[in-house]
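Today's session is about reading a structure prediction critically. Students often jump straight to the picture, but the first step is always the sequence itself: look for stretches that repeat, for charged clusters, for runs of hydrophobic residues. Only then move on to the predicted structure, which in these notes is written as discrete structure tokens rather than atom positions. Here is the chain we will use throughout the hour.
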Amino acid sequence: MTEDFLISIAGLRSEDLTTEVLSFILKEEAYKPFQKLFFSFLLEKYHDDFFRAPLLIDTRKIYSNGTPDLIIDNQKDTVILIENKFYANLSGANQISRYKAILVNDYETFVNKYLILLIVKHRKCFYEEEIIKDFSSSGTPIKTIEELQDYLKVEYKINFKFLFWQDILELFNCEDIIIKSLQKYISHYFIGEVEFMKQEIAILKNPAFITAYKKIFGQINWIREKIHTGEYDVWKTKASQSINFYGFTIQLQNCSVWFGYSLLTWTEEPTKSPIILQFRREWYTDIINDKAAFDKKLLSLFQEEHKELEFIKFYTLEIFSDTEKIIQQLNSDLKFMSSLV
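Below is the predicted structure for this chain, in token form.
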């Protein structure tokens, strides 16, 4: 099964692709911990007996009333029907009604029945309206999703709920390559919208945050002026077309370096400072004969070699906020850099 996975999903995209990946995670023995997380999160009465018999998990299984994306059957008392939607309309005006019929007719003896619409959060209102129209048009007296949930529970013993991809991705958060790829694919193509947490909004509204953020750029401008009046040629301070950088280039005898604010490295390593000194090999005007020796020299000044920015050194916010210390440290580093190259 595992070795055929890529063959099985070749050519798929969107709902079909993500359904197959989710199915793979819920089937494979190596993902057992994630399976327990998923079902304990989804089911109202989850217990270890749920796994007593092997789960029957099918994608695109054909029934007389439709072809749901995912069916999970524990061969005992629980069946879960999942329809995965990102932006597509429901398949026909009565898709959810037809899927209700599958649970009623094809799984009559099952005690626990779940009808799940798997979506991204910002599409919930759209699908709520579509589902309410579906049931209202058939004469079911419901006006809200809550009323529909109560109706299906009382009349058919069906638990109807929305399941959000954002919650699954957070639940599965890890470095596994399959899960990480699923997270990036869904986040890139279907989530998109930024969601602010309450504490993040509180931080952004705090005048102290706004003042400190403005001071970062003011301090960079001030440092540029002090360096410019010294022995170095300094290019104009500017914000890059990217939101990731704000700073200036300093010209040394046979190379240049860049100093400023880097959101890119700060978000990668939040415990470090957003203030960096950067150097790229291409900024060196002479020929590099021995790259390994050259890099070794550079790493005696720069703290690490970044995958995108090449050589970088962080300046702590404590040093950066002290005007005398940052100028003294930067001048010292520039002299040292000049002696290296």
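Discussion point for the tutorial: The mean pLDDT is 88.
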